[in-house]
Description:
The complex is a heterodimer. Helices cover 60% and strands 11% of the residues of chain A. By secondary structure, chain A is an alpha/beta fold.
Amino acid sequence: MSDTLSAISTMIIEGNFVDIMDKTNAALEEGLGAEELLNNGLMPGMDHVGVEFKAGNMFVPEVLRSAKAMQESMDILRPILADTGIETAGKIVLGTVKGDLHDIGKNLVGMMCEGAGFEIIDLGKDIEPEAFVEAVKQHKPNILGMSALLTTTMRTMDRTIKALEEAGVRDTVKIMIGGAPVTQDFANQIGADGYAANAASASDIARQFTG
Amino acid sequence: MRTNYRTNSGVRFRMLSDDQLQELFDGVLHVLEYIGLEVKHEHAREVLKKAGAWVDGDRVRLPSHMVKDALAKAPRSFTVFARDGNPEHDIHIGPGRAHFGPGPTCVNFIDVETMERRPYQLSDVPYVAKVVDSLPNIDFCESLGSVDNVPYDLSALYEFAEMFRHTTKPIVAWSFDYYDSNAIHRIAVEEAGGQDAFEKRPTYIHYCEPLSPLISTTDSLNKLVFAAEHRIPLVFTPCPLAGGTAPVTPAGIIIQAAAESWMGLTIAQNIQPGNPFIMGGVLSVMDMSAMILSYGAPELSLMMAGITELAHFAGLPLWQTGGCTDSKTFDEQAITEGSMSVFFSALTGGDLCHDVGYTESAMTGSVFQLTAMDEAIGYARRITRGIEVNEDTLAVDAIHRVGPNGHYLKDEHTLRYYKSEYWLPNLIDRTSYEDWVINGENSFKDRTKARVHKILANYEQVPLKPETETLIDEVLAEAEEWVKQQEA
């Protein structure tokens, strides 16, 4: 049994997102529980990846392949975990704000957070405040993440937070923001709950919010 | 008498072979013909369709004859003029001429007095413009920041007015969209003495940025269409990240960036045949640990050299990049990265090299970095100017005169040449240890800071025409009103 768990950890570390679904299904058939697979297979793998990334031994392309493997396996495990009432990392709604088509940073955040076990609902780019409000109502995420690259579009984050307040759902989510011109001061100013300077710290903050 | 004598005074540098350049060129045409771009601008799509492009929704593909036609129409050489008619401040763009200037839109600025990092303010623009105006190796002006303390939509407009007031060197003006592009142009046209006069002697270049991968955004095309319609020279420069928003290989990022820029070229040349066009973009790697676009990486210089050679192969000037750094402070890293890229850019003859003075991966502008790089550019330019070989420089007569065991210090040949053959440093110290101690043991940083302060203290403004000043006041007042209406 521990061979299976260690094989799954290895698949995460190697970023083997092709075979991990079969391996996950096989492990469930072997009788391993979804929670055990998550806590003793997937998470140790991702933790290792996190340590190696911070140490400068692994790089973004490898980390994202590991995160993709994590997400593929989690897609199988998540419904089972939900049925058995076990809490997962949580759900994040993400989007690049209205007027901004730059989304590489937001995509990185999404993939890094998937690697941390979160379910990601990516609304895409050029997202209106109203669309964020709708998504919060519909998906009931733990966290809403907004991104902007341009100083002009940054202020749309402020409008989005106001729209959430008006809709009465502001307090149902933690809001984190990021993007090149965004600062902690700006986050404080518009009343966001968190600011991340890069995708790796975004996933750390997301974990703090839900941990 | 010499016949058929070939002169190669400058340093010759070339990286790519003709075959490689042809492969890159064909690669760009392939991307445009078979993949195409999303062109998020209805008018631009109509212009392209009428000229023979294949349009399917937002997606536009260009038959290669259209691209070649646009390349043939765009000039390789043209001039951007000083607003006050000072010929020393004109920029003659053409083969073998490398020019340098700062970059736009950093969020932060290194305070001129305290040298601390803080948000960029309107009062910083004159500092940058004055330093640009005074430095001998800085040829055009950008502001090194986007102004934080005016209404957002007007920051480019306020910035332009302040640059225009405080330097006569040509300006590269960015803007958000149609409204501020038009307002900026009104100011330049007023000073020139009308649209016709401006077209004869354009004083600024319009800067637009498409999005990678392969999107011509609405705002970038609003600006491009405006520039083409008013015959304003324009830069159309994407900013792809190798491994992120573009292929990781230099050849791959070069052809994608060229395709992004040439879509703009094709639109502009169909609106205004012969409109001066400067090809982009800024090519560098996404650092796979720090997740930033590196402004100090060797790959930046390498990729920029490659795209410069492709631009010249295709008959276009290029928007080069150099003099920038990922360092957070004025240190050895900043000077190493900045100096290396400046030298490499000068070697390529890339036509307008921008981002001189960028620090912290383009997050923070610094006139100290800019001033230090002026020194590096002077150094680089002395090398790229090369060695002139003729009868007089061979100095056989002087060697006859001096002969064995003499010296050249007092010889007329030395007197005639030493000032033009030597580059005279402004910041680099070559004094003896004792003199260095007597002079206060100043570091390069100390001397750079002193030079900035001296420039600012001695700066003399060449004023705009009174009617231009009046118009600036009107334009800004109207713009403030417009912003209020937009918000209402």
